[in-house]
Specification:
Blueprint: H1 2-25, H2 30-53, H3 57-61, H4 64-78
Helix pairs in contact: 1-2
């Protein structure tokens, strides 16, 4: 009884997410809704299979603490300003005074 319940809960969540995204994009059709819902449920089961195959490595890698560090490193990397090519860093302030 536990497996059908998990499947239908996942299907309900996938259906609601698919409906939200399709309405947001303005492409809400019945075929698109069913296809995206089943695709999302399939991705959830694929993730579970891969997590089982790699003995929980995916679930450990996707803990909130690990995701937080990855997002922080990405944000720092995106906010890094590179010097323009061809000009040394110490000459960039000369000429503005």
């Amino acid at each position: 009884m536990n497996k059908p319940f998990k499947f239908f809960v996942r299907l309900l969540v996938a259906f609601l997410l698919a409906q939200f995204f399709l309405r947001l994009l303005g492409a809400a059709t019945l075929a698109g809704l069913v296809g995206l819902s089943l695709g999302l449920v399939g991705c959830a089961y694929l993730f579970d299979f891969l997590d089982w195959y790699y003995e929980g490595a995916l679930r450990r890698a996707l803990k909130p603490k690990a995701i937080g560090w990855l997002v922080a490193r990405l944000a720092v990397g995106l906010n890094t300003v590179e010097q323009p090519k061809g000009r040394p860093a110490d000459q960039s302030q000369e000429g503005k005074g």
